[in-house]
Structure formats: structure tokens, C-alpha cells
Design brief:
The complex is a heterodimer of chains A (about 210) and B (about 180). Chain A contains 8 helices and no strands. The two termini of chain A are about 15 Å apart. Chain B is mainly α and about 180 residues long. Helix content of chain B is about 80%, strand content about 0%. Chain B has 7 helices and no strands. Chain B starts with a helix and ends with a helix. The chains are: A mainly alpha (about 210), B mainly alpha (about 180). At the A-B interface, helix 1, helix 3, helix 4, helix 5 and helix 6 of A face helix 1, helix 2, helix 3, helix 4 and helix 5 of B.
Chain lengths: ~210, ~180
């Protein structure tokens, strides 16, 4: 926190964690269809100016890299940055409590209306689209690695990353081996491969 | 499912470890959660799993709230609370600590390797998650998913909500025709 003090916008106020809980609840409950990240940016960077763009980007990068739901991680980091442990708790609760109640309410409503096939078909379409979004995301990552295979000086990196990706997909997706065991076994292996095949000079100073 | 302590303990045992290995976020855990919730413990039927996934995606808030919905189905409000704690608390504590030490770590040589090492793992897990949902559906589901995937690769900036809505419309049209 101290290191980032010089880039901290001045208006970061004396608001209490309780207020933070409500701001995060508002963002959580209002962001339909998986756009919580951009809304948090709007609220805290553009709106309240409690965070600089750089702080938000750093937090989002850490949130994406660490295990856990990206948005909840982001909330914990922003809350921590603004108000320490109490802020982190307030942010995470804000992102989870309200939206949980809304989601459970929607499930209860869906149960109620189930009799007509219309809702069934709509939900099936949403599930299919959401799976398609994941498919696109995974293919994009895989495609980037496949292109590395044919790029100058990156073939080893591309091949090793692509093999880990395919192996994980086969073991968890098709063979249904326990994900926890698979990830714990592969994580050191994958990091070692990245270390051995990585461009050390390019890696330096990144993050 | 009856509300006895054993269900709660099972929920805890399934979701707490996943919290700490969910590289790639909520979607990375879909395949494992589906396997546990449908095949191993029978908390929800396969079709119901897809419905809860759809609702968690269309509803406001983090998509990872699917886990809360599964807890709710498995054991009511206590189930929802147990799963939420099990799945969100460990990773939140971990990321909180990471936030503290991140700036100190970032120049160490292994840091970039660890960071890059997670990318293919997350990619494989997310694809496994997509497969877990697609297995449940027929040709329409596969068609919609492929179209959305292709569209997203072509136009990455389109708001996901538009694609979710589009998928629902296509599915409805197919039902009515």
C-alpha cells in the first residue's frame, strides 16, 4: 500500500467498510451477464476515483492469476487496498450476498414456471451460449500456443504449453480424474516448463 | 436431500479444496463440480445442472455463484452457506496474502514462470468445463455453442449478455418451429 501511495488518487475517503459493502453490493446486483469487472472499474476508478487505473489493472491481473473466482478475488484486493482486512471482507460479502439471494430467487421462480417448456428452452440456450463463450476462451488460449509452435524461437514454449493444456483437458474433461490432484501434480511441472522454455530477458520486469 | 450434517460435511470436503486449485476462475471448476454434483453425489440431475449454470450466468454478480446454487439444491440455506464459505473463503484469504506480497515477488526469476505455468492449466480446465456443459445437450446446444464461440473469436468486444440472449432466442425459435 505504501509503495503505491504516490499514484493514489487523493479522494480515497474515510468511508467505513459498511459503506464499501453497499457499493460492492450495488455493483454485484446490477451487473447482469458477467460484466462485474468493468462495472467495478466504473464505480471505483471512473466514478469515485478511489483507485488509479494502474492499481485496478494490477489487482485484476493478480485476481486472474490466483485461484478462485476472478471477480471475488478482485473484490478482495480492491477492498484490501482501500480499507485493509475489513475492506476485503466487506467487498467479498458485498459481491456475494446480494447476488446469491437474487440467483436463488431466480432458481425458485424457475422451479415455479417449469411446467411450460418455454423457460426450459431459454435456459438451454443460455447454457449453450455460456459454454460457447468458454469454448471460445479456451480455443483462443490454445490457438495462441499453436501459433507459437510455428514462430521463430518459440517452438519449445508453444509445444510444452500446448501439451499441458491438452493433457489437462483430457485428464479432467474426459477421464474425469480428480481436478485437485491433477492440478497439484501439473502446476510445478508446468511452471518448470515455462521457466526452461521462457525467454528470460523478456520475462524480466514483467508482471 | 435431507438436512443432516453429513451432507454439509460432504459439500465442505468437495468445494474447499477446489477453491485453492481453481486456476482460471469459476469456469475452470465446472467439469469437476458437474462430476461431483451429478455423478458422484446426485445433488442435482444433469439437466438441472445445466439450468443452474445458465441461471448463474444470466443472473447478476459473479458467475461462480453456481456453487452457491448447487449448495442450495443439495441442502437448502445451510447448504448454500456452507458451499459459499468453502468455495470463496480459502481463495479470498490466499489472494489477500498475494496482494500483500505481490510487489515484493514480482522481480524474482521464478515469478514469471509460475505465472506463465498457470496459463495452459487454466486453458485446459476451461475447455473441460465447456465440454461438461455441452455433453448434456443435443445438436441445438452444440450448434449454439459453436456459433457463440466463433462469434466471440471474431468480435471479442461484444457484451456477453447479448450472446447469452441470442442463444436463448435461437433455442426458443427451435422449440417453437
Amino acid at each position: 500500500m505504501a509503495a503505491a501511495a504516490n499514484s493514489t488518487p487523493p479522494s480515497r475517503s474515510s468511508a467505513a467498510p459498511v459503506a464499501l459493502f453497499f457499493y460492492f453490493s450495488k455493483v454485484g446486483v446490477l451487473s447482469f451477464g458477467g460484466a462485474v469487472g468493468p462495472r467495478l472499474h466504473k464505480e471505483f476508478v471512473e466514478g469515485r476515483r478511489w483507485l488509479s487505473d494502474a492499481e485496478f489493472s494490477t489487482d485484476f491481473a493478480v485476481a486472474r492469476m490466483m485461484p478462485g473466482a476472478n471477480i471475488v478475488n478482485l473484490g478482495a484486493l480492491i477492498g484490501r487496498r482501500l480499507m485493509g482486512p475489513g475492506g476485503a471482507v466487506a467487498a467479498v460479502l458485498g459481491l456475494l450476498v446480494g447476488p446469491s439471494l437474487v440467483a436463488i430467487g431466480l432458481v425458485a421462480l424457475a422451479d415455479h414456471w417449469k411446467a411450460g417448456g418455454t423457460l426450459d428452452a431459454a435456459l438451454q440456450g443460455v447454457a449453450a451460449s455460456a459454454a460457447g463463450l468458454l469454448l471460445g476462451m479456451g480455443l483462443k488460449t490454445g490457438g495462441r500456443m499453436a501459433r507459437m509452435v510455428f514462430a521463430d524461437g518459440q517452438a519449445a514454449k508453444g509445444i510444452s504449453e500446448l501439451s499441458v493444456l491438452v493433457a489437462i483437458f483430457l485428464l479432467v474433461g474426459l477421464l474425469r480424474l480428480p481436478m485437485t490432484v491433477v492440478v497439484v501434480c501439473f502446476a510445478p511441472f508446468s511452471a518448470a516448463l515455462a521457466f526452461l522454455t521462457g525467454d528470460k530477458a523478456a520475462n524480466k520486469g514483467r508482471g | 436431500m435431507m438436512a443432516d450434517g453429513r451432507t454439509l460435511l460432504t459439500l465442505l470436503a468437495v468445494f474447499a479444496p477446489l477453491s485453492l486449485v481453481s486456476f482460471g476462475g469459476g469456469p475452470a471448476t465446472l467439469a469437476e463440480i458437474q462430476h461431483q454434483a451429478v455423478a458422484v453425489h446426485g445433488w442435482v440431475a444433469q439437466r438441472e445442472f445445466a439450468d443452474l449454470f445458465a441461471i448463474s450466468r444470466a443472473a447478476p454478480g459473479p458467475g461462480a455463484l453456481l456453487v452457491t446454487l448447487i449448495g442450495w439444491r443439495a441442502d437448502g440455506w445451510l447448504g448454500a452457506l456452507t458451499v459459499s464459505l468453502a468455495f470463496f473463503l480459502p481463495s479470498s484469504v490466499l489472494v489477500y496474502l498475494a496482494g500483500r506480497y505481490w510487489s515484493r515477488w514480482r522481480d524474482l526469476p521464478w515469478h514469471a514462470a509460475v505465472e506463465e505455468g498457470f496459463v495452459p492449466i487454466a486453458g485446459g480446465l476451461v475447455l473441460a468445463g465447456a465440454l461438461a456443459i455441452l455433453q448434456s445437450g443435443g445438436g441445438v446446444v452444440l450448434g449454439i455453442a459453436s456459433a457463440v464461440a466463433a462469434f466471440q473469436l471474431w468480435r471479442p468486444k461484444v457484451h456477453p449478455f447479448i450472446l447469452l440472449g441470442g442463444g436463448a432466442m435461437v433455442s426458443l425459435l427451435y422449440r417453437w418451429i
